Amino acid sequence: MKTFQSFAVLLSAFALASCEKNAVQDITGSLPEAQIRFFNFSVNAPGVNFYANETKLTAILSGTGVESATGTVYGGVGSAGFYSALTPGTYSFTGKIAADIDKDLAIASISTPLVAGKAYSLLLSGLYDATGKKSDGFVVEDNFANTYDYSVAFVRFVNAISNSQPMTLFALNSTTTTEAPIGASVAYKAAGAFVAVSPGLYTLNTRVTGSAANVISRSAVTFVAGKVYTVGARGDMTITSTTAATRPVLDNTANR
Fold first, then answer.
1. Widest CA span of the chain, in angstroms?
2. 246, CA 20 to 30 Å: which among 73, 147, 150, 171?
3. Residue partners of 190: CB distance under 8 A and separation at least 6
């Protein structure tokens, strides 16, 4: 993990230096030991920048050399999915509007401790309240092993849909046509365990307990040996359109 942590620290340093005028990064000394990354899975939420206390951890650099007003939009992950490295401790994490209108207004605030040697994901979730300008959110530990196993991939399921029932993720192997659950049923704001999966091409489906009907599906998902993945459910369960941006979907993002 040392190489991965080093890259995450350098990426965070570049992002902050790019976004804060005259910012100077001190990259001497030992590396921070806790890591966190950020998802905007709050349906209809504006693009945001994520902060730890008062320190900005994610932003987008525009072609003019100044910070973009886009931020991390719905369905996106901050810093291209890389982790930000922080000194262990308790932080107040906020997602603040990146646009010029309501600039830096916090739509969500989540306080959580970060423990040395552990990794986490923070997800803005549920349905954005456009009137109150508030979003729900939660943090889960990304407790994958630090060692590498190049015979399998590891996959887990996170549920960020507030109006869903608890769901189990199933993976159907396109070559063998065998299907297996990825862990147990996962309720809103929860994460399942990382499960070893044979590398290959899969169709992913979620189902509620006691039902054979697929609730959310995604085809042509590739899991590569030696990698770790989080499959996240996001969207609005009341949307039946197959093309609407707010429909329930399964997001697949590599942890490593």
1. 58
2. 171
3. 140, 158, 159
3-state secondary structure of 8: helix
Give the pLDDT confidence of 35-91 residue by residue, as tens digits.
Answer: 999 999 999 999 999 999 999 999 877 677 778 889 999 999 999 999 999 999 999
Q: How far apart are CA 114 and CA 7, in angstroms?
A: 19
Q: CB of 159 within 8 A of CB of 190?
A: yes
Confidence (pTM): 0.86
Rounded CA separation 68/59 (Å):
7
Instruction: Name the 3-class secondary structure at 170.
Output: strand
> In this structure, are residues 73 and 47 in contact, taking their beta carbons and an 8 Å threshold?
yes
**Confidence label for 228 from pLDDT (cuts 50, 70 and 90):** very high
How far apart, in whole angstroms, are the C-alpha atoms of residue 155 and residue 152?
10
pLDDT in tens, 18-36: 444 444 444 445 556 899 9
| Nearest C-alpha neighbor of 172 from the set 210, 200, 212 | 200
Contact by Cβ (8 Å): 239, 248? yes
- Separation of alpha carbons 94 and 205, rounded Å: 32
Q: For the chain, which domains are there?
A: 2-141 (2.60.40.1120), 153-254 (2.60.40)
